[in-house]
Amino acid sequence: MSSTEVESAQTRMNAHYRLVLEGLLTNAERDARLARAEGDRAAMGKAQARLDTSRAALDIYTASHLVGYGKRPWPREVLG
Prior knowledge:
- The longest helix has 36 residues.
- By secondary structure, the protein is mostly helical.
- The relative contact order is 0.13.
- Helix content is 81%, strand content 0%.
């Protein structure tokens, strides 16, 4: 595989990961808002844990990519 092909595959993987994570973050944020509005502390805790876990996964992936490739997989302002 040439370096151009590897870079292209990496770009596609980053885009797919970002798309998946955006959906997870959106759903977790929605669930947290709904639980807060309903006053359901147990559901709010679960939703907040999912949201925190999704954000941590994003941070880990971003940091790993930065260390491995010397650049972020997407611009800083895209997610977070």
